[in-house]
Write the structure tokens for this entry.
Amino acid sequence: MRIKAVGDIMLGSLTPRTIIPSDSGDVFSKSIGRYPTGADIVFGNLEGAIISEGIRPVKCSDASRTLGKCYEFGMPDFLAPSLVKMGFTLLNLDNNHSEDYGEAAYLFTIKKLSELKIISLPKKDCRKRD
């Protein structure tokens, strides 16, 4: 069995300031996509939540967000397919940014990854979720 692993993965974010690739994330598969291929398991840490329209950040206060003292990461769901294009099969969600947009985004992230056939490793301290 061959395993490849990377650290934090950030496809772009709407907060704390909007930084989104113009090509729906294809820049990642074109530039580094060949490196995580050729393995049975390709693992990484998804540093933030995958979000859909209407899901808002909840971690930071408006004041701390404005002052740049608090960071919330929310990746629009149209970027998620780039994870498949890079070959990811398993993503960790047990990190300090997985619930930056609240429980709704956390659960949406798990659902979206499942739709993409990517296994998610949930937070260790999460309660049973239906």
Summary: Residues 102-115 form the longest helix (14 residues).
